[in-house]
Design goal:
Blueprint: H1 2-14, H2 31-34, H3 59-63, E1 71-77, H4 82-91, H5 98-111, E2 118-121, H6 126-132, H7 136-148, E3 157-159, H8 171-178, E4 182-184, E5 195-202, H9 206-216, E6 223-230, H10 246-259
Parallel strand pairs: 1-6, 2-5, 5-6
Antiparallel strand pairs: 3-4
Bound molecules: zinc ion (ZN) (2 copies).
Length: 264
Amino acid sequence: MIRQRWLQAIVDFLYPFRCLSCGRLGTPFCRRCRAQAQPVGELICIRCGQPTTIRCICSFCRQSPPDPLQGIRGAVFYGSPISFAIHGLKYGGMTQLAAPLATYLLDHLDTHPLPFDFLIPVPLHAQRLAHRGYNQSALLAAQVGARRGIAVRSDVIYRTRHTPPQVQLSRQQRLQNMEQAFAATQPHMLAGERILLIDDVCTTGATLRACATALKETGAGEIWALTVARARAPLDPEPWQNGLRPDQVFLAWDAMQQQAPTSL
Ligand SMILES: [Zn+2]
Ligand SMILES: [Zn+2]
């Protein structure tokens, strides 16, 4: 029994980490599990980065482009096992996951170069930062910055208020929730500098867009955003679908088609 404990202590000393997905010793997120993540690839909206069936500007961006962001890019799709790793980094105190997760960002930048002079992580509210002890996006940006020799600026924008979780909100509600959630620490701080915003996950891009709006106050030039993972945005129901069962939706759609003016 004592011998087993000693052995365990030696193993723990030699291999302090276990892969949080498969349990393999030696690393917090092993190479094999990392390789399971699916790259987002080329079939995206070139503005918001949402996956699409063809490379295009999606219907949302045609109506409401993600200005002042030039574009949003995600390295891999959000899903298991990457969701475990992001959760571990964000809520589990496992800061050692920043390095393996940042490899997705670096790989993406190798294959899809973006123009930038500075990296800026999406800020946390001061209260949340004090509670968590670190900003996961800043750790990711630091990894990319160190390996690329690019400066990380965490002093340019800050979060003005706590915002309710975005999970249950529609696209429109997310935008409203994020309105003026960030501000510039000092105007005209970045005259014409090109910025790459860094975050862990992007769903609709409302957070990144709000950051970019604050960055524009600092005089920033072109602003791009890159996140480790891209979650598929929740589909907003069409107004005429609200409260209808699927069969009723079809009937309503059918009725709409009947009423639609036919053109010759
Ligand atoms: Zn693993
Ligand atoms: Zn789009």
